[in-house]
Design brief:
four-stranded parallel sheet, Rossmann fold, alpha/beta, binds phosphoric acid mono(formamide)ester
Length: 309
């Protein structure tokens, strides 16, 4: 694996290796003994993905370059390729990129001699989010085969839905979608059910935010969307005892999920965020090993004291 771009590229074995590596890193993780720079190029807003990449890189001992878009030469019209090539030329050993174009990476992966991680591509893919979602499910159940996972919300504009549906299908889970009219994605061949069927059927309910920034919006009033298509308190009570709630966040409380449910017993939303750090550490080391920039036999392990995340 030279780059981390799409869940379509990942074999079952590669996914399990990353999940197991992330779990190991929670207890013990390497700290690189030589200088390596990670450039984080976020052309779209981010809190979780950017912050957890920064934490992951720092835990591994990397130097972090955090391009501030509003004060960078992107404002003078510099292209994504030229920005990425510039970072590589001045010493970045790894590029972590989020960009609004669905396939921004096409122009970069064959031309740049460093590993590239897709931290979100328009409404295309969000593979590192998918891996942390998989880790959260795996921690809960220990398997994927036969699990009923329902992805609920604005499927059409969601990179999280695409990455997860592909990966969960590869791993043997049974994937369903539930969406309000207009939010279906006919390019993805998974069956649609209603939110009321979803809550009763699912082992995992993966909720999505309405991606207002990717469409005209204004189609639904928050309150009526919540009542018709969201996880209300009444619907949550119909879920099976063991079923869990995931959401990539940011959450629109009172729209796709009742505010009271964001931190309820079956919610794993903040657990997902914590898992994101270790998953991203595992993805970074996997790529750096592949490129010969890191060898775990030559790197001292650093123990994490009990009680410290
Ligand atoms: N889940 C996710 O990608 O969140 P951010 O947009 O805050 O990074």
């Amino acid at each position: 694996m030279k780059h981390f771009i799409s869940t379509k590229d990942l074999t079952t074995n590669e996914m399990f290796t990353i999940l197991e590596q992330a779990e190991q890193y929670r207890r013990h993780h390497p700290k690189f003994q030589h200088q390596l720079f990670a450039a984080n190029l976020f052309f779209e807003a981010s809190t979780r993905t950017k912050m957890s990449f920064l934490v992951a890189e720092k835990k591994l001992g990397m130097e972090t370059l955090d391009l501030q878009m509003e004060s960078s030469s992107v404002t003078k019209g510099e292209s994504l390729y030229d920005t990425a090539k510039t970072c590589e030329s001045i010493g970045a050993n790894l590029l972590v990129i989020r960009h609004q174009v669905d396939d921004w990476y096409q122009d970069l992966v064959e031309r740049l001699p460093v590993p590239i991680i897709n931290a979100g591509a328009g409404k295309g893919e969000h593979p590192t989010q998918c891996m942390l979602d998989l880790l959260t499910i795996y921690q809960e159940y220990g398997y994927f085969n036969g699990l009923k996972v329902v992805i609920v919300g604005d499927i059409k504009h969601s990179r999280v839905a695409r990455s997860n549906a592909q990966a969960l299908h590869t791993l043997g889970a049974t994937v369903f979608f539930a969406a309000a009219p207009g939010f279906e994605d006919t390019t993805l061949e998974f069956p649609y059910i209603t939110i009321d069927e979803a809550v009763e059927k699912c082992d995992v309910l993966m909720l999505l935010r309405i991606q207002h920034e990717r469409h005209d919006g204004g189609q639904y009033e928050s309150e009526s969307y919540h009542e018709k298509y969201g996880l209300t308190i009444e619907r949550e009570q119909k879920m099976q005892d063991h079923a869990i709630i995931l959401h990539p966040a940011p959450v629109n409380r009172g729209v796709e999920i009742a505010s009271e449910l964001v931190e309820c017993n079956r919610s794993r939303i903040f657990k997902q965020m914590n898992n994101g750090v270790y998953i991203r550490m595992a993805i970074i080391t996997t790529l750096l090993k592949e490129w010969g920039m890191y060898d775990d036999n030559l790197t001292k392990k650093r123990n994490t004291p009990n009680g410290i995340k």
